[in-house]
Specification:
Elements: H1 31-34, H2 37-44, E1 48-55, E2 58-64, E3 67-69, E4 77-79, E5 87-88, H3 92-106, H4 137-142, H5 164-167, H6 171-176, H7 192-206, H8 210-219, E6 227-229, E7 243-245, H9 247-258, E8 262-263, E9 266-267, H10 271-277, E10 282-283, E11 293-294, E12 299-305, E13 308-317, E14 321-326, E15 331-337, H11 347-360, H12 364-367
Antiparallel strand pairs: 1-2, 1-15, 3-4, 5-7, 6-7, 8-9, 10-11, 11-12, 12-13, 13-14, 14-15
Helix pairs in contact: 3-7, 3-8
Length: 368
């Protein structure tokens, strides 16, 4: 009796989720090189939980690895991850929220990013401190609002603003009552409170719960049926950090951006919004050594390949959650990880991108 051929390493599982599955070789990647990823991650001790690769719109590689995880709303323990396991996206949620703002603008629910933030929260007008009238939705998107905000401290530090989003009975009041430390457009400062305001704006202009709007306008069109958007302990949705997705569904977000808002022939987000959102606008001072740039809740960086700069767009989440979008190579890479308190949490994803995935692109010269 003839033996069945062994399944190639990283061969994607065939699921009825909208992905066309193919092999690395059929899309110009060296599958043998990609097979070294698992050993590299083991040596790196990176607690990476998944690696998903898409090229030319096809899912061509996925691997899952057991590891310790601390998922929001679920037990902290060791998990056996696979293609059907949801994972915390953490601040990748911010990039998805940016897409939802774009959809709301596309649907004329919001006039433009230049709308003043306070317009959407008239009942909080008495809280306004000088400078709030000048802050626009664009300032929240680019984290250049000038709001006095600090979430770079330890979680249990009372001066860390981020925990108050979950503990305050009215987190909108908490954010809108913050003083203004600098004029808008002057200083980049990471601010999840601003993203939660964007989520509240979407809910108000749509007349629907934020996560309902997300499901109807983004997840359903992408064929994403298994997802969660977590709420804080105060029962308010966390637009900034609460999303949980299967990694191959998170890769759809990357493919949507790569394809200028199109998925399977359907325009879900306008190409104009994708272009605006993925334009670098600020140096991310204080993060990643200030080497990366920031747009509308999206990050931007570059990697040296064969002596040439390859630029990429990324959604970045605490713990090592990453979606890399590489237009030059028509490539999307998604990783999840569990190093939430480690300064090395993003190193493994960048190392794999540089050492394995980019070198595996066999038509690098043609792609340029």
């Amino acid at each position: 009796m003839a033996q069945e051929a062994p399944i190639a390493c990283g061969a994607p599982k065939v699921l009825a989720d909208g992905w066309v599955v193919d092999t690395p070789e059929h899309v110009g990647l060296d599958g043998t090189r990609l097979c070294g990823i698992a050993d590299r991650l083991k040596a790196f001790d990176a607690n990476v939980h998944s690696m998903v690769i898409v090229r030319h719109g096809k899912l061509i590689f996925e691997q899952y690895y057991p590891g310790d995880d601390f998922p929001w709303g679920h037990p902290d323990r060791r998990y056996e991850f696979d293609a059907t396991t949801k994972h915390d996206m953490r601040s990748v949620s911010k990039s998805v929220t940016s897409l939802l703002v774009g959809i709301a603008i596309d649907r004329k629910l919001i006039a433009s990013v230049e709308e003043p933030v306070v317009k959407f929260f008239p009942e909080y007008a008495p809280l306004k401190t000088p400078g709030w009238d000048r802050i626009t939705l664009r300032n929240l998107l680019t984290m250049s609002s000038g709001i006095k905000w600090d979430e770079a401290r330890a979680w249990n530090d009372p001066k860390n603003d981020e925990p108050y989003l979950g503990s305050e009975p009215d987190p909108l009041r908490y954010v809108l009552a913050k003083p203004i430390a600098a004029p808008p457009d002057l200083i980049w400062n990471y601010n999840g409170g601003g993203t939660d305001l964007l989520g509240a704006v979407i809910a108000r202009v749509s007349g629907k719960a934020f996560e309902v709007f997300a499901n109807e306008t983004l997840f359903q069109p992408l064929g994403i049926t298994d997802w969660e958007w977590q709420h804080y302990q105060n029962n308010k949705v966390s637009a900034a950090a609460g999303l949980r997705l299967r990694p191959r569904d998170a890769a759809k977000i990357g493919q949507l951006v790569l394809a200028r808002g199109v998925w399977n022939g359907q325009q879900i987000v306008s190409g104009e919004w994708i272009a605006q959102a993925t334009t670098p606008r600020f140096q991310a001072v204080g993060y990643f050594g200030g080497l990366f740039f920031y747009g509308y809740q999206w990050w931007f960086g570059r990697t040296l390949v064969d002596g040439c700069d390859v630029k990429w767009i990324s959604a970045v989440g605490l713990g090592g959650q990453r979606i890399f979008i590489v237009p030059e190579f028509d490539l999307v890479v998604m990783t999840t990880s569990g190093l939430y308190s480690s300064p090395r949490q993003g190193h493994a994803a960048l190392d794999i991108l540089y050492s394995f995935i980019f070198p595996a692109v066999q038509d690098r010269t043609k792609s340029r």
